Amino acid sequence: MARYIGIDAGTSMVKAAAFDERGQVLRVESRPVALSLQSGRAEQDMDEVYGAVTAVLSALAAAVEGPFALIGLTGQGDGVWLVDESGRPVRAAVSWMDGRAGELVDAWQSAGVVERVFRRSGSAMFPGCPGPVLAWLDQHEPAVLDTAAAAVYCKDMVFQRLTGIRATDVSDASMPFLDPRTRTYDDEVLRELGLAHRRGLLPPVSDPIAVGTLGADSPLAGTPVTGGPYDLPACALGAGVTEAGDGLLIVGTCLASLVSVREVDLAGEPAGLHISTDRPGHWLRAMPAMVGTAALDWVLRTTGVSHSEVDGLLDATPPGSRGVRVLPYFAPSGERAPFVEPRLRAELTGVSLETTTADLVRATCEGIGFAARHCLEAAGLTGSLAICGGGTRSPAWMRLFAEVLGRPLRIVEGEVGARGAVLASAARQGVALDVAAWTAPTAVVEPDPARAEFYTKAYDDHLQRLAAARDRARAT
Fold first, then answer.
1. According to CATH, where is 3.30.420.40 located in the chain?
2. Locate the Carbohydrate kinase FGGY N-terminal domain: which residues (predicted)?
3. Neighbouring-strand partners of residue 150
4. Beta-bridge mates of residue 260
5. What is d(CA 151, CA 157) in angstroms, rounded to the nearest whole number?
6. Digit-coded pLDDT (tens) for 241-293
7. Are 190 and 135 in contact (CB under 8 A)?
């Protein structure tokens, strides 16, 4: 019986999952990877990331009996991963969480560059996306760019070192250089960003996704492997979000909201992005807020609470957290969806000597829920909603999400990104899999009507407080 492997090179963890023909997880191997955060800068060691990929792949091959029909590769998006001809690093990777280009994005917003780029690409830039990062490096580290062969993305670096093939796919290329209608690089966008002279650094776009084979030094040498899509569209595939109007909420380090669409709307507010997929005529309208579980992690660390206590704390205080409110914009680079505000920071209000740890935790979870609702509404959600990510391990938080969003949630657990990478790989190579079985939800959570009504009013208050906070950020 054939086996399938999905590899997901995430921001803090690299995982490899083995699946059977029905999409059941047989085994998962994982390795943590470090993210260096200092003075608004976020970088990663490419060799460490690649070493983690080879380690989890080798461990999985040793633990699960084959044969393995294929491997699908996905990973974190955005940032800039500068490599030489062989795919080795020429400097540390600049993460999507990096904020060094914040002032540059501010200047582009004031000059109308951000809006003009959005009208062409359907993607609004934020400090950690490739356009601003490359422009910052061009100003401050031009010699490094001169020595680089390509500015790729995480999965592309891994794919080249596994197979020897340099390529990206339409999903990663969507931010912000790709014209979503022609599915090719837009030279006018490069000119707008002052990067026309760096066009040669952009990797070739493989459409559909590239296929290679693992090299002779791999324990699975000769196994076909595909490069892409990146983690957001891979999760959409893994959760079965393909029909127009249906959506996906990923409650992970990044709080990502995705809605399947059949047209590109370049007329709205410049925010989020349109992710091209392997299916022409189909896009994902994405509103990936900068911080999801990372905001809750910060609160838990600060209060000395463990993750295992979250469910009990959420049940220990009522909706509204006894007046405590959290605007969950904790990222050092501000926010990117459903608006771009590089200087926006988190706010905690309504605290007194009577405030409990449960109030703080619930208020944070509520604030993240409000941010998700804002993103999903901006993305145009009209159909069903699936939810995945590390946050799904908390049943109480899932109930809270259903109430804040005012709709049922299809819970999709397991290695959703790796699952989507396998489905993309199978479709690319003509391997027939039962997609409905692979993407079936593990549970459905219904909202409590009374609490949903309460949160509809509380959401309006959240939007008012957010508007005031944005005014303060812009005045800074």
1. 3-233, 289-411+446-475
2. 4-207
3. 83
4. 284
5. 9
6. 999 999 999 998 889 999 999 999 888 788 899 999 988 899 999 999 988 99
7. no
Amino acid 265: pLDDT: 87
Q: Which fold has domain 3-233?
A: Nucleotidyltransferase; domain 5 (3.30.420)
**Overall fold of domain 289-411+446-475:** Nucleotidyltransferase; domain 5 (3.30.420)
Which residues does 202 contact at the CB level (< 8 Å), separation at least 6? 150, 151, 173, 177, 185
Structure tokens, 360? 């703080």
pTM over 0.70: yes
* Structure confidence by residue, pLDDT tens digits, 291-304: 899 999 999 999 99
CB neighbours of residue 48 within 10 Å: 16
User: Residues of the chain whose pLDDT is less than 50?
Assistant: none
Q: How far apart are CA 180 and CA 129, in angstroms?
A: 17
Nearest to 124 by CA among 113, 134, 133, 135: 113
- What gap in Å lies between CA 313 and CA 319, rounded to an integer? 12
β 255-261/283-289 pair status: antiparallel
pLDDT of residue 395: 97
Q: Secondary structure of 111-140 in the HEC alphabet?
A: HCHHHHHHHHHCCCCCCCCHHHHHHHHHHH
Start-to-end CA span in the chain (Å):
61
Distance CA 462, CA 327 (A): 8
- Residues 403 and 51: their CA atoms lie apart, in Å, by 42
Going edge to edge, which strands form the sheet with 13-19?
25-32, 13-19, 3-9, 68-75, 224-227, 211-213
Q: Whose CA is closest to 410, among 231, 238, 262, 234?
A: 238
Give the CA distances from residue 472 to residues 18, 294, 469, in Å, rounded to whole numbers and listed in that order.
Answer: 49, 23, 5
**Residues in contact with 309: Cβ distance below 8 Å, sequence separation at least 6, in sequence order:** none
CA distance 294 to 253: 5
Q: Contact 120/69 with Cβ under 8 angstroms?
A: no
Residue 95 DSSP symbol: P
Provide the strand spans (E) within 158-268: 178-179, 184-185, 211-213, 224-227, 247-251, 255-261
Q: What is the pLDDT of residue 199?
A: 98
Measuring CA to CA, how many Å separate 159 from each of 150, 156, 373, 442?
A: 14, 5, 35, 31
Tell me: cis bond preceding 224? Omega within 30 of 0 counts.
no
Q: Which two tokens stand for residue 281?
A: 């005529």
Both tokens of 213, joined, read: 């084979």
The amino acid at 397: W
Query: Is residue 22 classed as helix, strand or coil in its secondary structure?
Result: coil
Task: Report the relative pairing of strands 13-19 and 273-276 from DSSP bridges.
Answer: unpaired
